Amino acid sequence: MLGNYELNQQYANADCARNTGMMPRVIVLKTCYHSMKNYNYLVVDPISREAVIVDPAWEMEKIEEALLDAHASLSGILTTHSHPDHVHLAKPMAEKYECPIWMSKGEIAASGFDAKQLIAIDGNPWTVGHMLITPIFTPGHTPGSTCYLIGDNLFTGDVLFAEGCGICLDVESAHEMFASLEHLKTRLTPEIRIFPGHSYGKPPGQRLAQLCKDNMYLQFTDKNSFAAFRLRSGQNLGKMFNFS
Ligand SMILES: [Fe+2]
Hints:
about 240 residues; binds fe (ii) ion; alpha/beta; Metallo-beta-lactamase, Chain A; about 35% helix
């Protein structure tokens, strides 16, 4: 747990990066395994050249090439949740680069995910280089799903896509998802760029303001109508996983 002085210092470092215009760089990596298509994001601090990777899966070489191209060193692995297509390379990369894997306490408890390098995160932000990493707990798709805010970029995993939101298993989790999306809408500024784990066609990095206009799942005003729509019958599972 960080003391106030340390946390203030971390905020000061992040402010310094903002004031000097040296904001984190997001490198978008699309990775595939058979029909599975995921977005991994390498986020690089331009000052220290330290980097974190979000939800690494499927193509280690592609991630390593991006690290080399960015002249960056890998300092940690952020996982939005524990589903296999979001943690596939977490352990091998943590071992190879001797860096931590961050996952929310709630997700670890719900999934049993374990690794030698695993760090259970609570709600406190922390820094990598000059980048302030702020976890935002957004349950619904899984009990411990977490988004990460770095600079003006939000990494949403399977919580929020440009075109929709992640699958929910039952009414209770759909209600949680509704609350999570409401939380994001009220907590974040409209300029924040959204980087999801998957896409149905729109490129990652759209602004929240755009999603609030276009994304059907952000239009609901009460949890019951949201849950009824999220869990409606006749949804085509094949289409749901037909990511582009
Ligand atoms: Fe998932």
